Structure formats: C-alpha cells, structure tokens
Amino acid sequence: MSERTELVERLAAARQEHCFPADLRPRAQAFLQQTLALLFPHFADTKGCAPDSLSKELDLIASALTGLVKDLGGDVKVVDIFVDGLSGVWRAARDDADALFHGDPAATSTDEVILAYPGFYATLCHRLAHVLYRAKLTVLPRLVAELARERTGVDIHPGATIGRRFMIDHGSGVVVGETAVIGNGVKLYQGVTLGALTVEKQAAGNKRHPTLGDHVVVYANATILGGDTLIGHDSIIAGNAFLTKSVPPFSLVDRRGDTRPRPNAKEDSIDFSI
Predict the structure, then answer these.
(1) Which of 25, 72, 117, 150 is the most buried (most CB within 10 A)?
(2) For residue range 202-235, what is the model confidence (pLDDT) as tens digits?
(3) Helix axes 118-134, 24-39, angle to 10 degrees
C-alpha cells in the first residue's frame, strides 16, 4: 500500500469517527452574527426598529441555536436559557460601552466604542458565550470565544466570570482563563494574562485562575497566575509585573511584583491612556 493510499484510508476512517457536523463552524459564526445584530444595530446589515421585525429576528436566532444544540447532542432547554439571558447581556454590554467611552479620552461616543473597539467586541462575545457555558452546552461556547479571538486577539474562556463595566483597552494578547473571576469596573490593557500556575489535566474543575476585585487596573503585559491569587479592590498592577501571590486592597504593584499601599488611594485616580 502506498503512503498516499494509506493516508486517504486513515483520513476516511477519521472522518467517519468525527462526531460534529462539518458545517458547525460557519453555522456558529452565522448564529453569533445574528445575535450581535439583534442586540446592537451597529452589527446589522439593516436597521430594523419595529418590534415585530425584532421579534422575528429573535425567533430566527432561537431556531438556529436549536439546530446547533440538537446536532451537538445537547438539551434544547438551553435555547430558552440563552434567550432569557439576552436582556442581561444587553444591559451589561451597554454598561461596558459606557465605561470604555468614559475611560478613554480618544473615544468620541459609545457608538464608536460599539462599532470599532476590539475590547468591547470581545467582551460582548464573551458575555454571550458565558450564558451558553453556564447552560452546560459543550463546544459552541468555545467556538464563540474562538471567533472573537480571531477578530480581536483577545482570548477569554467562556467560563470566566466578569463583572459590570468591564474595560479592555486595545486588547491584543489579553488572555483570561476559565476560572478567573473579575469584579466590577476592572480595566485590562493589552497583553495581560490571568492564567493558571499549573496545566495538569487533573486540575480541571478546580479554581486555577486569579480573582480581581472591583476597580482593579492591570497595565500592559502583566501576568497574574493562580487560583488562590486575589488582587484586592482598587489596586493597580504595573505593566510587565509577574504575580503569583495575593495583594491587599488599595495596593500599587510594580513590575518586579513588589507591593506597597497606593498613596492617597481613596482620593487619587491613577490611570493612564495608552
């Protein structure tokens, strides 16, 4: 048997074992685009404002998700959970856009943020993926996250828990792990990693990624690792810092990981625009 013949036979056998539909990826992409367009006309081809028209769009999204869930062997109850969760995603995303607008002097409007900011796009996709993840649907949440990463360079696992008014400035290279917990009003710059100290398979299901309290700012290329690592609220982490230990609230952490209290922490508003 030639190598070519052997390769073809092995590929044929592998395809027979493949348990996902061949068109799963483009269908997931279409489903995501439909959902984004429903929530914000900025992502739509046309601007339909009539309630009846929007209701039909929602029905189409529910139908598309039903087909995906069935093909993935999931429970169609997920569809109702997702549809019920869209109002919460919409409200949170509006808060995210508002926070980015007020937090970036370069932003001229929330419309600009929604249209053109990769951090907003990545966060919105994550909030949708997180609803699917919480409903215990497999594969599709990760596909949504991957589609967002392809467009923005931001890699947020759908399991990560993210609070309100979340801001990712610039975005490229940001990585947020599955069990990370991020509080309200947190701001991350490009290249930030919220990762795990271990990648051993037996650690699955454990808290492996850090927790950031409210109003934490993490500057570019900082790395924070570990499920027991807690960054106290109102702390600032310098660019290029490497942290594997907790820091108390109102801390200022330099790039070497040394920690000191923020001067006049309750009154100052240390923040920079890059």
Answers:
(1) 117
(2) 667 789 999 999 999 999 999 999 999 999 999 9
(3) 110
Residues in the chain: 274
**Residues 220, 151, 238: CA angle, nearest 5 degrees:** 5
pLDDT in tens, 116-154: 999 999 999 999 999 999 999 989 999 999 999 999 999
Instruction: Indicate the Cα dihedral angle 82, 131, 215, 217, nearest 10°.
Output: -130
Q: Please report, as a single letter, which amino acid is at residue 262.
A: R
The residue that leads in pLDDT, 203 or 26, is 26
> pTM of the full predicted structure?
0.89
What is the spatial distance between Cα 202 and Cα 3, in angstroms, rounded to a whole number? 38
Furthest-apart CA atoms within the chain: distance in Å: 77
First to last CA, the chain: 60
Side-chain-facing half-sphere of 174: CA atoms under 13 Å? 29
225 phi/psi in degrees, rounded to 5 = -125, 150
| pLDDT, tens only, 144-193 | 999 999 999 999 999 999 999 999 998 899 999 999 999 999 999 999 99
What is the spatial distance between Cα 62 and Cα 83, in angstroms, rounded to a whole number?
7
